[in-house]
Write a structure and sequence with these properties.
The complex is a heterodimer of chains A (about 475) and B (about 60). Chain A has about 475 residues and is of the alpha/beta class. Chain A has helices at about 5-15, 20-30, 35-50, 60-75, 120-125, 165-175, 190-195, 230-240, 250-255, 275-290, 305-320, 325, 335-345, 350-370, 405-410, 410-415, 445-460; strands spanning about 55-60, 85-90, 130-135, 180-185, 200, 220-225, 265-270, 295-300, 375-380, 395, 400, 420-430, 435-440. Chain A contains 17 helices and 13 strands. Helix content of chain B is about 60%, strand content about 0%. Classes of the chains: A alpha/beta (about 475), B mainly alpha (about 60).
Chain lengths: ~475, ~60
């Protein structure tokens, strides 16, 4: 590597380590141009995406053009707000006008939507620059994308990157964008956030418009945000929810993290079995929050495994409804696994689907009661750190768990109840793999405040996978 | 009819037989094992419903 190449690499790596809030500050101060930031990301993309497979499509030319236009706006004295010039990645189930939106499926490989999804439109208006569409499980469930295959974990390539928004989480972790959009029907934002060591927010049900997000099936689905840290996600949430559709800012995202949490009350439920790594991170987090002035006590939640079972049925039936035209079709580009999932779900009696929804109502009520006297609930996101990509079952606490059940176990309840929930980076475990912890609350503001204070104390959010580790 | 008198697995077996006919043998054989595995998982999930008997307005019984 020549000296010039080395300087360029160091410069590019410096940009990749920036949080969104830090990049915003530099752009606003005139120390960094949107085009420099976007080019820094684009320079990392060929090698980063080559090893991680996290993007299905890179929109290099349009990103460069938009970034230069944003440069010119700043030169003319126009600043759109904290997202001006921020590189964004979008899960490929969000419609993007005139840019392919495939859902990761061969079936829709030539689908060019006419309009942007609401969330994409709002973020474009706020000044973000879309650098690409991220890889996902085909149609958001079941099998890896039939177009692009599986996403690899930036911390270790032989480990799972998580669920359907894994491309978005891996891209953020590897510094291939500063923020990404995902979707979460049973943990699909929080699970990859935990496995890839980033912050993943599932806002309250209905908080962000789902219009233009394919498929539009699910009463469980939410638009989610993946970012390096909570304050970054809060800025994006502000732009996605601001009434006026301006680049609206979000107070919690702009404040310096406040580390005095005196008076906050946090409940911690029983979540055995979990791995030693996860237990250690959870216990450390309890001490951190207590040190910040929080009062921590145990709490009893609705049964997490029952909630996950009910959510799987609801999800499966609603997915079958969305893709019903493919169940009986003789198209050869519908994958075997996807067709089997749809077929199986279509055999579920309507009576049972309705009963699942009634149990969901009962769990909502029970969750409201559990929150009585609490501001937040702290629990693991996953029972272990990232498992091997080829694992079908894991051993934890002397028990064997099917990976699908293990994955949704701590997440699905909050898709049923609609509470805001986020996974945050709880440090590295014994194999140098990230451990994800989860905070649930009544409001996103409380989540951001608690996690921001935790991040300020621990600094874990600054840990990055140095180079993607190829393991054979 | 209440859940106590209703055999979900028998009901689903009838649906599966119907699907096999509708799909045709060639397409069916391609997905049968994955389908049976997936359906077994969902039926296992549905077994939790027996713990949550609720009345017409959702109150636990």
């Amino acid at each position: 590597m020549t000296s010039e190449d080395l300087q360029k690499k160091l410069s590019v790596d410096r940009l990749a380590a920036l949080s969104l809030a830090e990049a915003t500050e530099l752009i606003h101060a005139g120390s960094l141009r949107p085009s420099e930031l976007v080019q820094g990301v684009l320079d990392r993309l060929p090698s980063g995406n080559g090893s991680l497979n996290c993007f299905g499509l890179v929109t290099e030319e349009s990103a460069k053009g938009e970034a230069h236009a944003l440069d010119q706006m700043i030169e003319a004295g126009l600043w759109l707000g904290p997202l001006h010039g921020i590189p964004l990645a979008v899960k490929d189930c969000f419609d993007t006008a005139a840019i392919p939106t495939t859902g990761g499926s061969k079936v829709d490989k030539d689908r060019f939507p006419e309009y942007d999804a609401d969330a994409v439109r709002r973020l474009r208006k706020a000044g973000t620059v879309m650098v690409g569409k991220t890889n996902l499980h085909e149609w958001g469930f079941g099998a890896p994308s039939s177009l692009w295959g599986d996403v690899r974990n930036p911390w270790r390539n032989d480990r799972s990157a998580g669920a359907s928004s894994s491309g978005s989480a891996a891209a953020v972790a590897a510094g291939l964008c500063l923020v990404a959009l995902g979707t979460d029907s049973g943990g699909s934002v929080r699970i990859p956030a935990a496995f890839c060591g980033v912050f993943g927010l599932k806002p309250a049900s209905g908080r962000i418009s789902m219009r233009g997000v394919a498929p539009t099936w699910s009463t469980l689905d939410h638009v989610g945000i993946l970012a390096r840290r909570a304050a970054d996600a809060a800025i994006v949430l502000g732009a996605l929810t601001h009434e006026s559709e301006s680049s609206g800012t979000y107070a919690a995202g702009q404040d310096s993290p406040r580390t005095d949490l005196g008076g906050f009350r946090i409940g911690v439920p029983m979540t055995d079995p979990i791995s030693e790594d996860v237990r250690d991170s959870l216990e450390e987090a309890v001490k951190v929050f207590e040190g910040l002035g929080c009062r921590v006590r145990t709490v009893v939640l609705p049964d997490l495994d029952d909630a996950a079972a009910v959510a799987r049925v609801i999800f499966a039936v609603e997915a079958a409804d969305s893709y019903r035209k493919y169940i009986w079709s003789d198209r050869t580009d519908v994958g075997k696994t996807q067709r089997a999932h749809l077929l199986a779900a279509s055999a579920i009696p309507a009576i049972d689907y309705v009963r699942c929804q009634r149990v969901r109502d009962a769990m909502r009520t029970a969750m409201s009661l559990a929150f009585d006297g609490l501001d937040a609930v702290l629990l693991p996101t996953m029972p272990t750190a990232a498992w091997r990509t080829d694992a079908t079952a894991i051993e934890v606490g002397g028990e064997t768990w099917d990976v699908e059940k293990a994955a949704t176990r701590f997440c699905a309840l909050f898709n049923l109840t609609g509470h805001p929930a986020a996974s945050f980076f709880g440090g590295l475990g014994t194999e140098n793999l990230p451990v994800g912890l989860q905070i649930v609350s009544r409001t996103e503001e409380t989540i951001v405040r608690l996690v921001s204070a935790y991040e300020e104390v621990t600094g874990y959010w600054r840990l990055l996978p140095v180079e993607p580790q190829m393991t054979t | 009819m209440t859940s106590e008198h209703w055999d979900r697995r028998k009901h689903v077996t009838d649906i599966v037989a119907f699907m096999r006919v509708v799909m045709g043998e060639r397409l069916w054989l391609k997905v049968e094992s994955l389908y049976v595995e997936r359906l077994s998982g969902l039926l296992e999930d549905l077994d939790v419903l027996s713990k949550y008997e609720v009345d017409e307005v959702g109150h636990p019984q």
